[in-house]
Amino acid sequence: MSRVYTPPMRQHLKQPMRLAPGRVTMVLVLLGGLLLALLARAVYLQVVQQDFLQNQGDARFRRTLLLEANRGVIADRNGEPLAISTPVQSIWASPEDMSPVPAAKLAALSRLLEMPVAELQEKFADKKREFVYLKRQISPQLAQQVMALEIPGVAKQQEYRRYYPAGEMLSHVIGFTGVDGKGQEGLELTREKMLAGKHGSRTVLKDRRGHIVEDLAVIEPPRDGQTLTLSIDKRIQYLAYRELSAAMVANKAKAGGVVVLDAQTGEVLALANTPSYNPNNRAVLEPEMRRNRAVVDMFEPGSTMKPFPVSMVLDAGRITPNTVFDTRPYTIGPASVRDTHPNPSLTVTGIIQKSSNVGSSKIAAMFSPEDMWTFYRKSGFGQSPQSGFPGESAGRLRDWQGWRPIEQATMSFGYGVTVSLVQLARAYTIFTHDGALLPLSFTKLAAANPGRPVIRPETAKKMRDMMITVTEEGGTAVRAQVLGYHVGGKSGTARKLVGGRYAADKHIGLFVGFAPATNPRLIVAVMIDEPGAGFYYGGTVAGPAFSNIMAGSLRILGVEPDAPSNNTLIPEHKISDVREET
After folding, report:
1. What pathway does this protein act in (predicted)?
2. Residues contacting 203, CB < 8 A, separation 6+
3. Contact by Cβ (8 Å): 110, 91
4. Torsion angle of alpha carbons 415, 421, 427, 431, nearest 10°?
5. Dihedral angle computed from the Cα positions of residues 77, 79, 85 and 87, in that order, rounded to the nearest 10 degrees
């Protein structure tokens, strides 16, 4: 029987190697020192450097995006849009988040944005910039093509572009906004706070490729701007602009303006100027095109001022419409006062109808300079009409203490005092609204604002009756007649002051009137600056435009005629011009 071999058992196991006590202590101290260093570094970073590190992280990955508010709509009194905002896209980039853009993608981006490659490279090169616009206000379709290139660091954001459906016919009233959406002119500027609303914001975390990872705060939504409803009637505005433009061409004039007011509320139903501009395309925009002449330009109003001294003296009971005055030429010191179309004598009604300088100066002389100055001020002259437009003119009315007798005379027929067309149209509300001067309003009113009494209601009625004769046969503005309606008003023709002297060949032709004259609904003021077609009298150059604007406006508003329906206008070949030059 065989045996299995069993090796002998070891007598002694090998003893483990032991470290010297000094080495153990050294290792423990080293590890403890490293731990303390790490803890100190952590404390330093988390406490001392916390703000710095937080800012660095935010600068690289945290973004606050602007959520743009939609600008408020501007509408006419009937709700027709006059200014609206349409959504567009803007392309921007964050150079610090961008890697070198492949040549093919850079060329495609250049083609889509119509920008030179060198310009794009220049924008991308500044790595310190977090935000730079590449192209603003492009179509959503084009923006989508740009984003399809998937270039890291290039993004889009929604903005709004202003569009003006009425174009050039309302540009001086509405104005326009800049590329940043802020008002630059007109009501866009003066009503900026109301229209702009309030932008919102969204704080997000982005990765290094510019993609949004998450929202870091509650989104603050934008608050859209309010709707601004104007007193303007788009239909009347179109009519006014069309007729003013036609009058400019027919008279070969330098410029012109027209204002249409509601005679009982002071609301501005239309305001137009020529030349004008298209606010949707301002590539070529000369300063003369932007000038809101009806509001900012000052001029001497000529004979359109005559109803005011007449109404002042009439209201005091010193004269009646039938009072007769000697209207032959006379002198005041070294100066003479005369009429272009002389008459030996005229009633007060005749002075208005024939536009007599002699008669109006003699009527004005019945009161002191101080009384006349006070009356002019009460009628709104020499002070801002407070229309709310930037740069509006207050006109010029010198202090009465400096007046000489001849100056009081000339101020009675519109020389030596300057006004704006808006100011002049507003002043005529004292004749249409029972003697009260109405405040102007470019916004639609729920109820008329109270006027400031200037003359008695019965005086206003007498003035209306006298001013009707201006458009009847023998008056200075027969061409201002309107079929089916009584029309009252006053023409004016003034020489322009050039280089300190009144030019013989430069005039302003004016007509300001109202209808139906027996119960006025509208006031229309027309100004033609430097007519050059051979005629310059206000009744001749401004009267026809007034007639067309007034006739069309009354039809639009459905105003009942106050004259016999079978009345006829005086044919052109039978009109005998009554010349006036004030």
Report:
1. Cell wall biogenesis; peptidoglycan biosynthesis
2. 62, 63, 64, 65, 215, 216, 217
3. no
4. 100
5. 180
Residue 454, H or E segment:
none
Dihedral pair phi/psi, residue 231, rounded to 5°: -80, -15
In order of start, what are the domains of the chain with their CATH numbers? 64-112+130-229 (3.90.1310.10), 234-276+291-574 (3.40.710.10)
Task: Sort strands 228-229 and 74-75 into parallel, antiparallel or unpaired.
Answer: parallel
Helix (H, G, I), strand (E, B) or coil at 551: helix
Only one residue has tokens 């395309």, namely: 281
Active-site choice (94, 171, 303, 393): 303
Active site residue 387: no
pLDDT in tens, 76-124: 999 999 999 888 888 888 787 777 888 888 888 888 888 888 888 888 8
DSSP designation for 204: E
**Of 315, 561, 295, 301, which Cα lies nearest the Cα of 431?**
315
Q: What stretch of H or E contains 546?
A: helix 543-557
Smallest CA-to-CA distance from 524 within 213, 239, 163, 309 is with 239
For 162-177, how does the pLDDT look when each residue is reduced to its tens digit (9 = 90+)? Answer: 999 999 999 999 999 9
